[in-house]
Write a structure and sequence with these properties.
about 230 residues; mainly alpha; 8 helices; 2 strands; DUF6291 domain-containing protein; DUF6291
Length: about 230
């Protein structure tokens, strides 16, 4: 017989899932077995709950019984009473041999102290926060189109720009590209300079410079004025 029984939440949740008429039977089946070791005689749905709870109740009762007996005796590392304890004797003629490290064994380095670790982390932080190191990120086609629209580069072939630098790994000469916007500005200048309609003549309203005989025009105007 016991004065108490451990009732787990899992028991309660399982009993709660039973029909109302079976809940009370399951509850008393668990309590009676836990306190007095009585196994229910009547079989039904509540028996399943009892069988579920029984192994845990048995384990708890076994621990309880071991506790009432004072627990497991402490094992002492002493020699058998029938055996004399043999103490090692040092040989006077033998020098103490010191253990040498194995030559094939790597020397174990002392682990860094906590302060050293903190300093190392601070160095890494400073290095990561250094703004002098700019990591290049290749733009998307939409990025390039938006930048061209912002700069007014309406005639630049964005597709050709993307294909060219994607194929060469975004390299400028032998160096890795650092600023794709600068590369686009150079590309736009070369594109505009290469167009056939781009002349160095009269730039007013983008009209082409025409060749006129100004002396003949002047004489013609004077003739009309005197007539």
């Amino acid at each position: 017989m016991r004065e108490s029984v451990v009732f787990y939440r899992s028991f309660a949740e399982a009993i709660k899932a039973l029909p109302k008429e079976e809940q009370l039977k399951a509850l008393w089946a668990v309590i009676n077995y836990g306190l007095d070791g009585v196994i229910p005689e009547e079989h039904g749905v509540h028996t399943a709950i009892f069988l579920m709870a029984k192994p845990q109740i048995d384990a708890n009762n076994k621990r309880y019984q071991n506790g009432t007996k004072g627990g497991r005796p402490v094992t002492k590392d002493k020699p058998n009473d029938n055996q004399d304890e043999t103490k090692p004797k040092a040989n006077d003629n033998q020098e103490i041999t010191k253990e040498e490290p194995n030559q094939n064994q790597d020397k174990t380095k002392a682990e860094p102290k906590e302060k050293d670790n903190v300093k190392e982390k601070e160095k890494v932080k400073v290095k990561d926060n250094d703004n002098s190191v700019v990591r290049f990120t290749a733009p998307t086609k939409q990025d390039v189109m938006d930048y061209c629209q912002e700069k007014g580069y309406t005639d630049v072939d964005v597709e050709r720009f993307m294909n060219y630098y994607t194929s060469n790994g975004w390299m400028v000469g032998k160096n890795k590209m650092k600023d794709w916007k600068a590369a686009m500005r150079n590309w736009a200048r070369k594109d505009m300079a290469a167009k056939p309609n781009n002349t160095n003549g009269n730039r007013f309203c983008n009209f082409e410079q025409r060749n006129y005989d100004y002396d003949a025009l002047e004489k013609n105007l004077l003739r009309k004025g005197s007539g």
